[in-house]
Model the fold of this input.
Amino acid sequence: MTAVVGLLRERRWRGRFLFDLHNIDVRPEQWEFLATLPGPIVAHSEFVAEEVRRRLPDIDVIVLALALPLDEEPYRLPGTGRTTVLQPSRMTRWKGSHLSLEASMTLLDEGADLHFVHAGTQHLIWPPGIPESLLEQAAVWQRKGRVHFIHYDPRQSWAAIRASDIVIHPTIDRGAHGEPFSLSVAQAVICGRRVIASDSGNLPLLLADYSAATIVPAGDVEALTGALREATRQPATVPTAGDRALARHLRDGFATAGRRHLDLYRTLAGAA
Done:
């Protein structure tokens, strides 16, 4: 992006820039670059927007929802007849995959009647960074048919999340580089699933008004294990009126995101 902007400036381009910012890069040079852009910044959550406003108070920040396909395709999660715990995020240490594995296997060692399913195990952007010893332990439970590593596409994600009992999302970073939004947690709210998430980035804001959510300290495997243990003992969730209102709000945001982005582009193009 910096190279593109630099080339345009060399050619004395007089148009406006619109920077679509999903995640926070804490390196000072990145903020210095953003501060020079002659145009607004679009953020996908209030968490990211507030981080930008705090560092760049003179920049116009617009919050627009992410787009997500609402059309669905069938998908069957592995394992039936037991409580199903799903981590729907990409498999990486930053997403807390090592914590969810450890917590789930602790409960399995205790005799818990559950399946742990981790999605996002293909097409990884960076190495997972999960200790080999932990993966060796997981392989034992894989052979027993109780730990599963899977992958599905966005249209199958709705069926996968609906088929789970508990959705777990333990991103480990509590700073500015925390979870920027979490589409999968929003989907879990829409689907009325029980959610356990860390106090990372946008997750506490997203789940603040959701009755079936438990927030645990980021990076705290004991707190995560305890919350998961308690969640497995709870009955199926029954969404409240507030839960249903939040679900409608999130779903409407996904459904209208494309139109809202195009409306902004047209407005900016007309003002150029």
Notes: The chain is about 45% helix and 15% strand. The longest helix spans residues 241-271.
